[in-house]
Amino acid sequence: MVRAWRLVGDQLTDNPTSPDQSVSLDELAKLGVEYFQVDADTREENDFYKNLKKERGYSYSDLITVSPDTLPNYEQKVKSFFEEHLHTDEEIRFILDGSGFFDVRDLDDNWIRIEVVKNDLVILPAGIYHRFALDNKDYIRVTRLFVGEPVWTPHNRPSDDMQARRNYLEKLNIPNAVH
């Protein structure tokens, strides 16, 4: 099951600072973050996974392994993943092996850290500010899903004037906010 917690200040630890800092799936859902647990080893035979892909129109997927041994320009790529950004499309990541963290901004502009491990499928909505970091294992293997042709463009913060950001805030009933 997913673990998520609020980061205090610039804290970048792997564990919550205290039990009262934990964040529930309901709290993540209020931000538009969706989480599912699917057996990674049998995913292609899994009805839930097949239906999710069909219902949401995920027509393209690829596989990425992030580790010093497998990813060209590893240091540069990992650094760019950790820069706060948003996308104009939702970001769908299905963890096949390894582990890491997605950090997302809450409505008060604080970070929530979401630990992802094998069998976690996380969907971040278009327009949410986020970043990704590996944990101390320096390894994750992920299927990335897309609707149509993949869009890889991160828009670093600030990108508050982008339509995807405005649409995201509007869905959260924050029509004129700048976060």
Shape: globular
Oligomer: single chain
Classified in CATH, the superfamily is: Jelly Rolls
Identify low-pLDDT runs: none
CATH topology: Jelly Rolls
How much helix is in the residues? Answer: 10-25%
What is the terminal-to-terminal distance?
Answer: 29 Å
Q: Report the strand count.
A: 10
Overall average pLDDT? 92
Structural class, by secondary structure, is: alpha+beta
**Beta-strand percentage range:** 25-35%
What's the domain count? 1
Assign the CATH architecture.
Answer: Sandwich
In CATH, what is the class?
Mainly Beta
Short description:
The protein is of the alpha+beta class and 179 residues long. It has one domain (3-171): Jelly Rolls, CATH 2.60.120.10.
Kindly describe this structure.
The chain has a single domain, classed as Jelly Rolls (Sandwich). The longest helix is centred in the N-terminal third of the chain and has 10 residues. Strands 1, 2, 3, 5, 6, 7, 8 and 9 form an 8-stranded antiparallel beta sheet that branches. The chain has about 180 residues and is α+β, with helices and mostly antiparallel strands. It has 4 helices and 10 strands. Its cofactor is Fe(2+); Ni(2+). It is found in: Cell membrane; Cytoplasm; Nucleus. It is a peripheral membrane protein. One of its GO terms (molecular function) is acireductone dioxygenase (Ni2+-requiring) activity. It catalyses: 1,2-dihydroxy-5-(methylsulfanyl)pent-1-en-3-one + O2 = 3-(methylsulfanyl)propanoate + CO + formate + 2 H(+); 1,2-dihydroxy-5-(methylsulfanyl)pent-1-en-3-one + O2 = 4-methylsulfanyl-2-oxobutanoate + formate + 2 H(+).
